## 1
Amino acid sequence: MKIGISTKGNTADALIEERFGRSPFFLIIDSETSEVKAVTNPHSNDTGGVGPKAAQLLLNEGVNVVLTGQVGGNAFNALKASGLEVYACNSGTTATQAVAEYKNGALKQLV
Amino acid sequence: MQNTKTAHSNNWSEENVTRIVVASGKGGTGKTLVAANMAWAVSEQQTITLVDCDVEEPNVHLFFPSEGTQVPVCQTIPQIDAEKCTNCGACGEFCQYGALLITPEKVIVNPSLCHACGGCRLVCPEDAITEVPREIGTVTTSKPSDSLTLITGRLKEGEVAAPPVISATKDAASTNGDVIIDGPPGTSCPVIETMEDTDVCIMVTEPTPFGLHDLKLAVGVAKQFKIPSLVVINRSDGSDTDILSFCNEEEIPIVLKIPFSREWAKIQGTGHLIAAQDPTWRDAFLNLFTQAKERAEVKLC
Amino acid sequence: MLKIAILSGKGGTGKTMLSAALADILPVKRIIADADVDAANLSILLEAKDTTSKPYFGLPCAVIDPDLCTGCGICAEACRFNAIIPNGDVYTVRPIKCEGCNVCVYVCPAEAASLVMKENGTLYLSQTPSGVLSHAELFAGSGTSGLLVTEVKKQAEANSEDSEVLIIDGPPGIGCPLIATVSGVDLVIIVAEPSLSSLHDIERLVTVCRQFNPVMTGVINKYDLSPETTEQIEKWYRQEDISIIGKIPFDSEVLTSVRNCLPVTRQQSPASDAIRAIAGKVKDYLDEHE
């Protein structure tokens, strides 16, 4: 299973980025192999549609679960329509910590 | 008869008619009061069409309750033929608004993000996209009297695209005679769509810092369309100094001042017209119409 | 941080007056946002100063290079927004109509069209005696006001520090900017005035707001101008399960304060008293939802 996480940096110890659509990076972590892939978000500064575009980026990467801070209305609709599960992380946590919290069932499901 | 807006343009090519738009910038200054009273006064003398382009919150019909015929206004959204679609993602890539989501199983359209630009249909290599209509509002036409036609545009609650409904509303207005348009508040897309192809703008303002601030913005929009303006001061305090200075600088005539009156607020608030109750005001609004027609002859550069 | 939006449907009922007054007296740390980006007036009442700004780029705009344009007109045919017009031998884009869809760029056989970023307005952050104010102005004649409203809200949230509440002065209408305003809001305060227009408009407003499921409350401003219509509105509020949290009398002091560019609550007056009572109800709500 692949987990997509919105992050401020491109390594596993990067902090979570709260804003889904405008996140500068997404880390894609394979939960079985623990392989980590960093993807730069090319749409983070677009004026519109950033939420759905970020959702599309994660869909293209084959992500099943998304860990982020908060999602706006358009992002919510796109994520819901796409069947991705989305969980809210606490700010100040790293990507690695967020994955651990998700696996422990400690995160609140947003979508 | 369905009215599907695929283009934001108006059928108004008739010469020798004057199209007056009532605007303000700030909400609540009295656009509807002016448009409704003026149209009523004019309808006593000639045929006139009154168009309510405040499609988000249309109120003119409250002053002219009458049976009307309603037609839907539709905007198109893309429909993807699943048989032909190869999931290549070209449509989603092209869409500037994020309205198309490509999942492994299918393409999902978010209608509220779609701007009906037609781009996805153009880029699809498999010709798998057609455009289908979706109702976003209505246009109602009624005749409160033999000489007065009322056209009311209404955006469906929850829809975001006011401009196509405004455009359809203007299309429905007769081109056989003069037109008075009650415009929306603000200075963005809905106002732009309303002001386009009109001849003169009556700006309704109030003598407060808000009124003046927003009047300046609204005048700026009218200038972009090279439409001459005139000003009505509602709830005038008698001196209205700041408005006067601005209008002097901009060479915009102030044609009517309506003093605040609790009695009139009540009359207006219960759906009645001060022009119908008081011949002095009927004449004042007739005069406003005449002045607007004259002002429409002014060419701005 | 709880988010409160002050809305009305119809313009001119007193949203900005009430927003400024609540911002002035609510006894909690607060941040304020003006979501009426077309006609942003809240800063006028809040003694805004030390304002910093940054440009707002709305949707990009198409531009046609006249040196490359062959005058074939294919772009104008394809443009759904009537944004491309002939200009002598070539074609030109009218920025006021362009929605940045990119179709003209795609169809142009001469590659003469391109999309460029266009400045559509300015985002402002100001200091006021009541707290930080996030506001913006759309350049007159621009589009994307909904997007700018979202930027104003995001800027407020980014600068909220330990604020307990965000007070949002909403725009009129029920379209894009209103939807952007009410999305994600916890409490809505509807400001009605005693007129049929206002009643008609809040009916439509509430239909839209319900999609977002906020707690809905209502106020009637200038209620004594028409007792009968006030009663109609009260009845409607009750029917809709919208709790009435205050009625403000018509008060010439309101106009005086606006003219002095101050919140009405700076002076003792009947309107001021009524607003204090409303603020009390809002504070109760905040306490219950900490």
Note: The mean pLDDT of chain C is 94.
## 2
Amino acid sequence: MNNSESFQLPEVKRTPSRFRNPIGKYRLNRTSACVACGKCVEICPYEVHVARRGRVRIENAYRCVGKDCENTCIDVCPEQALSLKRNPDFEVLGDRRWPPDLLAASWHMAEFGQVPEKGLEYRIGASEGGYDKLRIAFRKSKIGSAMVDDDEMDLGVLLNRRGDNAHLARTEVPFYGGGMSYGSVSINTMLSRMKAAAALGTFCCTGEGGYPDELKPYDDHVITQVATGLFGVREETLQRVKIVEFKYAQGAKPGLGGHLLGDKVTPGVARMREAVVGYPLFSPFPFHSVYSVEDHKKHVDWIKAINPKALVSVKVSTPTDVDMVAVGSYYAGAHIIHLDGSYGGTGAAPDIAKKNIAMPIEYALPKVHKFLTEEGVRDKITVIASGGIRTPHDVAKTIALGADGVCTGTADLVALECIRCHNCESGRGCARGIASTDSELMNLIEVEWGTQRILNLFLAWRKELIRILKKLGMKSLKELVGRTDCLVHLDYMKNGSEK
Amino acid sequence: MPSKYVIHTEAVPRRFQPLIQSGIIAWEEGCLKCAVCVKKKCVYGVYDHRGLDARQMVESIDNECMNCLRCVQGCPNELIHKSINPEFMAMGDEHWSPNIIASLWAQADSGKIPVSGAGYPGPFSGPGFDAIWTDMSEIVRPTRDGIHGREYISTAIDLGKTPGHLVFEPESENVGAKNFSPLQLLDIPLPIILKVPGFGAMSEEIFRGWCEAAKRLGTLFSLSAEMSTKMPEEYGPWLLPSLSADPISKGFNKALKALPPGCRMVELCLDDDWHETVKEVMALDRKVLISAKVSMAEGMEEKAQQLVDAGVPIIHLEGDFRGRGFDDPEKFLKDGIRSVHLKLVETGVRDNVTLLASGGISMAEHVPKAIICGADGVFVDFPMLIALECRMCRRCEKGLSCPVDIQDASSEWTAGRVINLTGAWHNQLLEVMGAMGIRDARRLRGEVGRAMFFEQLDRETFESMGTVEEECELE
């Protein structure tokens, strides 16, 4: 993986929804006036209508782009047998950060490996602030100025910039999988993420619930987490990986420890975490051995003593003095500072913490980038950002705000058809089998299907990022780091006009 | 060390079926009644619980649906559909939003902190308190109160004038504060005082429930002086009667005598001509603490200042029921609190007075945020009514019947639900204080360094990203 010359990107394989009725934005109705002339079948580029045994049926309504369609089946129908309306189910999906359009667009990417052409907003959500009000500004004079083959574009991120003895790990794509513990998600979900990470030439983090044996084949792509609960942390697993991540805090619940509700502590989870079946598990906050940067250095030194080749990543959330935390982490010897903004995901957290504590990543990142630059150490440490990064445009904006790369989490789950119902924590866990350890529910996901869905999503992201970079006149992602001049915030825009 | 303050909660079931957000399941024509969805697909057993007859699958409103859409996506003929429940969305208003109401109901049911999966679902920021994020402590600035965690966080606050400093009398063993009597101070174990909401289908029974809740919580219950006299005597010490201008002007002494026995604090609602009245009141030899109400409107800072100068030890800053200024709906309670607090800080009298705030406090996070802005504590009004399943439909204001018959609720049920809600809020306050590394609610007051303000952060971060010097395409 350190030799990108030999790296081969995996291929997109169409991977449709695992449910009988995929949910789309529109519904088409066909009345009995239909004479099965087949004109709709011919004109629709999305295979919405299917002719079979002398009859025409609507089989893929979820792919209909509705009003964005140029030559509509409704217009060509000689009998006016077709009508279009919004799908009421669609409105029930998602929330302000992941509105229905963004979910459906991500499902499209997970199925086809490319961004939707029409009909869905795939670039921003509906939160009306932060990323959703930031725009990438393409200067007319730069557009089309980068004459580079897609294959030659460099989207990789070097993770070790200290030049010490640790692995010279790098990723081929500017993102890796954020921590999701065994217990909060099923082993099938974990494996899907891990296998996709391996195929994409990047990493994926185990989260704080230990290192299940099933992940062993992917050791070189695993980041193992040491969190405040120290669940499942063993010398043997720390020695097996290239990257060890200290989780000081998590964006969704800054200042609070991890939380796994009792119902999700199944025998398998309990064994892995050395805990009791059926009892809720709380990680403390903070690390009770760390009350200063000096204490923090002891932590880093501990890892370096156990596994001298390991890279150390420090995952923190975003208090007002996040810049001090970042610089402190650098001096303590960390290779990666991972900032998790306050709108990040979680398997379970108090609502009050998700909404109110610590700041969104959009504010923290420029602050840290600037501080590290002024300190003269910015090129010695890798900055990874996470906490609400949902789209390839979010990735580009994050890099422009000063990160080297990002962590994904919720996006992976959306690829597996998460609908953001927010019930990951309750009872048997996710009814859709993603964030559940229930033996019946977790088998709703097959690892092969899950892996390909995640791969497809991220291959679509990659393609879109290449398009964005080329449009900016850049040849590699590194050129975009900290380029806030490529961004415009709608509330503060002074010149120019929106497309 | 005093014993730890714990609010004991236990489940108090609702009397009515709740409204939920996506509650309608519509079966379209053509259903073969194969019952695949009904019998097998629902992970939560919703279809079983509601006793639906599988042979009669007609459109029905559902109260338990968890919105996983498995039935919608699994129906063999694509006939089951869900949509947003308009009745749910119609609840309340922009401030008392349907989601806030539903969350308060759930807290009153169980006394538990609302916990959910997946990240924050809401807008990036919002008006009022939603434009504030509280801080957390991490690595370089760990909990400044040491390593005891949240076990020893105190949420108690003082009402009244605290002594400025201690005086040591060289002749005796006494150490005390000059001119200070303990009667001048009242402490409550949490920075929340219950208050009668501005409307609601209330009965005397409900009032007794609120009294009981205040007593068991160890806090006060603010109500009109008239109503306070109708409450059972045992609740006297927990009542905070509010005297309107009229009886005060007819002789404060007389009004005081009419207060319930044991009453420890009283609030004055003053008219424009208040200077003389206050002078009179403060000169009286009395055993109750005096609080004066100041409406959030133009000139409130000066009025608060003058009241403090006149010796009033407690100021109650009141916003409207959505927490806005009475004369300016663009002004939020947080702004009002900050500006009154800062005025009192500037003139050097802030420590001589307790500042309480009310109006529109609708979620647990508003308590620490109001305190960060400069209040010592807050009044909570409508959440006490919503705990009783109120839907904020305001039919009662028009003299129409209450859809959830609040007036028929028992006092015991009322007390249980309100205690649950307050217990959940108290625990959430502890979470936020724990994350900030603050161990005493009294020290959170005015600590704006432990908060981040949207306006400031947004400008600092994005203002420079505003200029586009040549023609651009935006994406």
Note: Chain A touches chain B through 117 residues (CB under 8 Å).
## 3
Amino acid sequence: MKALCWQGVNKLSVDEVPDPQIRNSGDVIVRVRRTVTCGSDLHLIGGYIPFMRAGDVMGHEFVGEVVEVGPDVRRHSVGDRVVVSSFISCGRCWYCTHELYSLCDNGNTNPAITESLWGAAPGGCFGYSHAMGGFAGSHAEYIRVPFADVGAFAIPDGVSDERALFASDSAATGWMGADLGGVGPGDVVAVWGAGAVGQMAARAAILLGAERVVCIDRYDYRLVQVERHIGAETLNYERTDIGAELLERTGGRGPDVCIEAVGMEAHTPGPQHAYDMAKQQLRLETDRPAAVREAIYNCRKGGSVFVLGVFAAVVDKFPLGAVMNKGLTLRSAQMHGQRYIPMLLERMARDELVTEHLATHTMPLDQGPEGYRLFKNKLDGCVRAVFTP
Amino acid sequence: MKRTLLGVAVAATATAVVARRLARAGGANPFVASARDRWHSVTVLREPEELGPLPPPLDELGEAVEVRVRPAPGGRGTELAARLVDPVPEGVTGLVAKARGEDPVRRLRSALREARSLAEVGEVLLPDLPATTRPTLTGAPLAYATRHGREEGRL
């Protein structure tokens, strides 16, 4: 079959690779109908997460059709149209039974790498390096889905592939940030990053009853989407004093909940960016945490900061003093998709949650490298590039 | 700036080592004693009587291991611990054992992880096969690490 493969730092190619096989009794094989780029893929492509091998298939956010089922699969049959959580979780361990699915004890076949790096291993993830299990990704014609009864969900008839696609990761991640960040009625919420995840976090905050939601980014084409499709306010940080604006919009308090949806390659105006770039390129810090710093600094006293962006290891100039002295709650996670996807699909069916606008570029898998070029370099108004294998 | 995989991998490894040293600095002195002959533990979301005294595949290690099973607090299931009865090969002997694939600590870690998966899920999750990965020189260290993915780590 054809697949979009990582071949080295900043090198992608579409190649012939072996078809996937059923390996465990709970597996299904899915024919991928749509699969989408994610900002966190850029960390892999750029070599910032150094656990990829040449030939690894990229991609973790997808929908498709079940074409083969393992002997113990109960909830799915050949022909089912499914959306699949990007994280691979058993559904049986303590973490899964407490809805902390991305922390699954049994979903990662290479726990040693992340145990050594982080102290404990999260679950596995499709197409997200050998640190996350080395599972082949979804930018391919077919994909093996382990624990399919737990991680694959039938798409309701009223929900299109185009919409359901983003329940796989972006919408679930965004919803988690608002939910576990503690957003409730009357809150003012600030979201750093107006990509797909940031937009979904903002929409989740609105649906959870937030009084006011503000999205922060530097690309107007994203902020226009926020205003048009999400219904949140926007700020362009290249033209606005974000701290002063947030204070003004919150009566001098600061946002109750600050959600960071940027990750380890953050940009920011001023010398801070040059400092972080230099340290990252010299490997004196692995991640650039500018948006996390801003979220912590601007959050109100006693407020909540949720880090949705992907980080690999260590950061510099982390404002721990602000966290401590302002009494903040800082929380983060890879996404617990299985916890949210059924609810998200219901909301999609009711048109409460729309996502089609995120797919600004749809193209055949053969054009995958071009899709990532547009996506990475923010060209042609690209929010997400979707591939149709 | 040119970034090579090797450089990135070395830096990441160094970062991980520093982070581990820093993390340990607040607790026990990491340089005092080897941790290779201590108890290795996993918590399994099953009752002790469901696990039995010697859950598979620990039973395959026979008398080479001592196994301890006790309830975990707070409804977290069962703490399953095991340690090797015989002295653990150290230094050059230990490296040779690893090279030959005969390191008993690796076997023990893998058996504990597999015991948890078998008890909780009924089977052990397998990696994709055939792998799509292409062998390269720069990928060799990572390939080695993934071949021993359940045998190393902090367990």
Note: The mean pLDDT of chain A is 97.
## 4
Amino acid sequence: MAVASLPAHDKPASRPRYGSMSRDRRWALRWSYFFLTVFAIFFLMPPVYMFITSLKTSAEISAATNPWWVYQPTLANYIALLTSSQYLTFFRNSAIVSVIVVAITMLIAVPAAFALSRMKFWGSATLATGIFLTYLIPETLLFIPLFKMFAIFYEYTDVQLINRWWVLLLVYPTLTVPFCTWIMIGYFASIPKELDEAALMDGANYRQILTRVFIPVALPGLIAATIFAFTVSWAQFLYPLAFTTSTDQLVLPVGIITTLIKGDVFNWGQIMTGALLGAAPPLVIYAFLMDYYIAGLTAGATKG
Amino acid sequence: MAAVTLRRIVKRFDDTEAVRGIDLDISDHEFVVLVGPSGCGKSTTLRMIAGLEDVSDGEIVVDGEVVNDVPPKDRDMAMVFQNYALYPHMTVYENMSFGLRLKRYPKSEITRRVGEAARILEITDLLDRKPRQLSGGQRQRVAMGRAIVRNPKVFLFDEPLSNLDAKLRVQMRTEIKRVHQKVRTTTIYVTHDQVEAMTLADRVVVMHHGRIEQVGAPYDLYHAPATRFVAGFIGSPAMNFIPCRLETTDRGLQVRLSDRIAFAVPDGRAERYRPHVGRDGLTFGLRPEHLTDAKPDGARQFGYVEAAIEVVEPMGMETLVYFTINDTQVCGRVNPTAGAREGNIMRLAASLDNMHLIDDATRRVI
């Protein structure tokens, strides 16, 4: 019976070598950390450089010393900007414009998204896609025709829109509304259909379904959209550059480059300081709302 | 509370007809269950009654009033959904009181009603919890509580127990029955589970392909099914169907299942069956519980089968045995002590008073 017998010295066949789960995981983590570190350094370098430069005097900046080190740190740039009524005007203009734009955007985008995601009407799907497509048209393509439109509007109505800070309230929502509507459509679509049907059966009308069920349930999405709208309005550069000129009408990003660059003289210290201070509000908002942003509020709505 | 009447209700989705003309009278306080396989149109019918779907054709009448164009919020019905659909951002109390708050009931009245419903459902100590902190069974109770506090004309249940595990399902089934006995609200309940339908309903409506197959009390559906579909759908394990022929012998009519097996037709049925003698396309139907080892009391007529048992399934209180007649698998229910074993030959008694004869062409029970 040679078929059945095995040579005695043969060791049991070695088990197939599967990669261990923990080894795979460790490997993936190591690479993740590596790339995250590279990206973090890459993206943090400019702000760090700005911060270092903001602590230097003009003399030190123009002297060819080590750009990554401050030899005579000074707060002069900060004091100069924070006591300059001009800089504070820019800051105030930016704040007013951004807050109002966020409000306008939400007032339009949330009901629009609700209607497009829930009230199935003729052409709603096409309209939803259309809204997204308008977001893809860059503002660099639009600002000249818009300028022309405002000029014609002035000719006919004698209402001057150019060089008024509030004209930005009309223009910014063209950038923020489409994208925010799109985000909200996505969030509303993730809310189970039974939830609005339950509210309908409970006697709610569409407005009540929106305000008492959809908005609270989609709060993380709403906050994401708010952050987005605020960031876009706060950082918008091209439109205010084109539509506002006099210093009392300017918003922060345009204000910094028009007043702190005189001819070919760049006041680098103050430019860096102004930009750093300008970046603070979005940073603060992100920091505060991050938890909401991540929290999953829909858990428990239906069978998990 | 109210009576609900459906008159030739039709629902069309684009080219397909999901519901093809349904007539149904549901009286006040009644518990009616719509049951059928998935896609039979039972949920669509319920959603049309709720007002969540438009009615393509026909009329829905509640308390003598046509409600086809009345929006759901004004129909005064409450619905319990399969996946509960609790508002995730509200506590149990807020969930249950939402409908009342929308209708601006006084606070004291809301507190009273929620308290009472919570007591009936035994969820008083959960009122401050959020839905995500509840188990499946507790969520189901809250969803029922949300319906009860409204004190609506009609309760609608859309497969409310399908998401629960088997044990909890049985428990909640009893719960629903208990609640209905207390509040007596007209209830329309949709399920695909025939056991749920049989145990809960005053009347069961069996639906198939968008039509009503049969309406009747659970007992009647079970013992006198009108069609082959109902006969096969109601009861578990399902009724045995075996192709057969009717023959006349000198001792009267007999139904022949195979070369070796033929049963005498009980006297009461002979007249009804006589026109079908000799023709093709007949099916003999008998429930497994009427094919047993022992001779049960009260049944007058029996036929006997020598069966070579192929599969044995002990259930505890009974044992299911499977064998073949005429290339058809047949199931019988025998006493666990009868000693059924695979490969054994068993003598089984068929209770012919409970037999059914089905015309294959019309698929109706003769």
Note: The mean pLDDT of chain B is 88.
